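User: Predict the complex with zinc ion.
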Amino acid sequence: MNYAQLPKVELHLHLDCSLSYEVVKQLNPNISYESYRESFVGPVKCTDLADFLTRAINGINLMQTPKELELVTLDLFQQLKADNVIYAEIRFAPLEHQEKGLSPEEVVQIVNDATAKGIAETGIEARLILCTLRHYTEEQSMKAVKLVEQFQGTMVAGFDIAADEAGFPIKEHIKAFEYARQKGFHVTAHAGEARGADSVWETLEHFRPSRIGHGVRSIEDPKLIDHLREMKIHLEVCPTSNVQTNVIDTIQDHPADRIYQAGVSMSVNTDARTISDTTLNKEYTILEKEFGWKKAYFLKCNLEAIEHAFVGEEVKERLTKKLKEGYMD
Ligand code: HPA
Ligand code: ZN
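Assistant: Here is the predicted structure with zinc ion placed in the model:
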């Protein structure tokens, strides 16, 4: 089946891990394609998540001025268009873009404006998720969550925690997620990737997210799988990324199909289009080839993604209609 033409929803996508060669070349005209591949695209197998994350630095270095941030955001919209994405939630950590003097507020404003422009240019609906990072201090994490507050009513729709799950505990971030809960923000959190089910339990208890980024290692605990299903917690599953970060040995071992069959709400995502050299079209093709997934499976995942999207009912209804039309034979 050719998935290229099917409409798709993507909830888990890092802006700084998704720079195309075109935009990198525009920002650094001296770079060759070979050198781009070498530094921006990761090996098929990294040692672990921390090793994988070292590849993101190249993207972040090229996202330090208003022009760079704008071009990288608009470039991502072109990639989403090529993948026939109709709704995307794009995430990034605003505090990582201050090397040339931009304030975090300016960073969010620039990406927010570029997102509005991208939506107008492509017709793709989109929202932004602001990330704190595992290695941040409590103060930095609070700064990140307060940016979500400052940008309420814009394209900013939620809060997340990313980076090295295995290397840093959640302690410094509990206050920021409590703040997010008090304010009623939409929240997702990376967990159950570099660590197992205990990390997902801990994340659910202290951060209270409606979705989990990855969460695939929940499969190691049947009680947790039951809990996720009962509480309707949505897993943002990113198959290629999990093999690349060495969380899962091979794609044949990936629990995506077992999670789906267990009735847990899930979606299919790329995570890092450049580092993982992937698209949703490729991810869908992999799931079809390895697990015999059919069109109906992808429709279900996309409908569940919309149900758990950080966007209002009106937009959800419009996207749901568009999706159903796209999957009709
Ligand atoms: N996990 C944590 N942080 C990340 C990831 C991931 O898979 N991708 C980009 N930042
Ligand atoms: Zn991620």
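The chain has a mean pLDDT of 98.
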